[in-house]
Amino acid sequence: MKKSVVGCLLLLVQIFIARADHITGGEMHYTFTGITNGMYNYQVTAKLFMDCYSNRRLPDPAYFGIFNKGTGALITNISIPMAHQDRLTLSNPGPCITNPPSVCYDIGFYDFTVSLPPVAEGYVIVIQVVYRVQGISNLVNGYGNIGATYTGEIPGNGAVASGPENNSARFNSDDMVVICANNSFSYSFAAVDKDNDQLRYSFTNAYVGGAGGGGVNFPPSAPPYIPVPYGSNYGPGAPLGGNVKINSSTGVITGIAPGEGIYVVTVQVEEIRNGVVIATQRKDLQIRITTCTVASASMPPDYMLCKNSQTIELANLSTSPLITSTTWELINNKGVTVFNSNSPVTSYTFSDTGVYTVKLVINRNQQCSDSTISQAYVFPGFKPDFNVNGICFKKPTQFFDATVTSYGSVNSWDWNFDDGTGNDFSLQPSPTYTYQSMGIKNVRLIATNTKGCRDTTYKNISIVDKPPLSLAFRDTLICIPDALQLQAMGNGVFSWTPGTAIVNGNTATPTVNPATTTTYTVQLDDNGCLNRDSVQVRVVDHVTLLVMNDTTICQGDTAHLHVQSDGLRYNWTPANQVLNATVANPDVVTRVNTIYQVTASIGSCIATEQVQVITVPYPVAIAGSDTTICFDTRAQLQGNTEANRWVWLPSPTLSNRNVLDPVASPKEATAYVLSVYDNKGCPKPGFDTIVVSVLPDIKPFAGKDTAVVVNQLLQLQASGGKTYQWVPAINLSNPTIANPTAMYAAPSAGIIYKVLVYNEAGCVDSAYIKVKVFQTVPTVFVPNAFTPNGDGKNDLLRPIAVGIAHIDYFEVFNRWGQLVFRTSTNEHGWDGTIAGKLQPSGTYVWMVKAVDYTGAPYVQRGTLVLVR
């Protein structure tokens, strides 16, 4: 048979690198034009879509590859110039759309003819581009800079003899459609078929470009092609999420749009002739969903109240500001309205099960009026579930439906095994699938029942190259004549080798009794998927046990005991002194000399040894009793011990830290630690602490010097301590209190009293006060002149009150009657300034008002001279 490709094939004779960035979609169709010399001729048209606003260019020329569909063998590569370019723009989005987006596509057309010999497998025509648009929302992390592959299939004659004489299905829908985020929509992927083949539509995988995606896209790589990495809640069967479906008969996708973003959507249409799928054509678009709103009656296609609740929550999914009225109506299967409401958001709890019609009307008899109906399935107690058997790569995995329903029976199953092959799905109740890749698979089951309930469940299963197998231990020891139970964990059929000295060797937990050291190997068979592991059983005829030498410790300390042994279990006595009596090397707390016994065992074999722990008391230190000293004094420490070495700390305030009776001179309370050492066997020190507290410095105060008149009662007031002693005691009511009174019968130039102030420890300090006694009536003495020149003599004009209880005010005025000074404090003086400004020399007037010690008012005025 002659193998050739003839007609208008253009061989790739040169490489012209043309970048096709930010492609937003593509599709392909062809027409069968006849047979020439046994070659089948086809007129092929490919379309590439690009956003008008991308500021990029479509590839010119574009590079196509033709491959054998079954084997992937390359037939030829061809370079095709762009035939023409069209622009599609949405000019009238309609009055009921708020904030409509700009929708515009540039479309490149590529036309060429090919002539191919008929083959059983058929052909696939391929074009690849370098980049899709960036930030695609339904891919992993908004995956960007990923290539794209667009295909068209020519059937072979293996399944249907007339397959090569095929005219492909051709998508003929309008691409100018506005989709608003979280609103209901309808978008057609409808196609026509010249041969009148049956057409069946479905969502499918979008492909990356080239072998790795995102690299140089010329020439195209051979099939099979890698699917794009869909993100969570999306997939080849749900590119716009679970609320968007495709009609398998019409190609129309409907539902509630996801949030704002760019979404890659790929629809395949299968051409079915005489019940056989002869070819599949694909259309791939990146659809832009924006934040616009449509004034529409928008609901989910159905409400599934099939889990636990019988309460329906109703809200129009359209949030358009053009909606002015809302009407809800719930109707049972007898046509009776059971609920209605005019609230935009409402709820209702059904009293009985059944299928109810939900009707929504907006803007009744107004512009943008719309209505829609949906179905509510109220049959609680429906829960999809499944079990899995077999998890090995390239071995059959069996899935078992475990869905439960309280009403009706389960009648459909839609499985997605998450293998990324394009054939990883099934409609069987308990299907078998052989995985072609390893890893975590997020298996999805959509189940329905005869009452119309539908729900989805997901489970992650781990597909591995061998079944998980684990052992309780891999190396152990037994003593003749004991037996040992081995323990393996996994799912499948177990078999152990060698078969000697073993019972139940085809179980996970056989019993072995070897006479010599033996390695047992276990094999786990999970539906032909194998894994192996081994355990060594060492065999001895006695227990080896070597204990540590006897030891000496300080009394009450913790000692660490240790042995050298091959024992598997241990027991120490006396157990009440052992912190963990079942380990080989425990810690013990010992206050008296103790013999510890350890028993080591391997099964029924045991060995016993002993170790003695001798205790020696800590050396005794006596630092003395705590004491308190006066401020800035010293304390004599008196330590006591039978040890032969000692030291006091801290040392900076001690006269000698290496004597038992140092002198301490702390400035503040200090804890002194006496540490002592002896040579009786305990290498650690004994210690004791004495605290020397330091009282604060005494601040004695006897009061300010004062003056009184004869027979005036004077109140003294000392402070700063706990007890007081006044000397001399002349004229005092009580010289041993802080506040004695005094009265004088004769004048005096000044009596000086000393007060001794004591604190709680008997520490003492002193202060003085001078009392003058005048033979006069109560008076305020004011000098007749003063010289505020800063020489320290007569610089202040001060009132001196004698026999006065208190001064109401003392005021000084200048010759214009202006007040220049005022005070109510005895001996508080004027410095000859106002606000820091010197006042001139001259005569000033003063006035004083007071109350004397008898309670009588006192008023006096006079003049004085300021001399500068």
From TrEMBL:
Residues 412-463 form the PKD domain. Residues 1-20 form the signal peptide. The keyword Signal applies. The keyword Signal applies. InterPro entries: Ig-like_fold, PKD/Chitinase_dom, PKD_dom, PKD_dom_sf, T9SS_type_B. CDD domains: PKD (cd00146). Keywords: Signal. NCBIfam families: Bac_Flav_CTERM. This is Gliding motility-associated C-terminal domain-containing protein. It comes from Niastella soli.
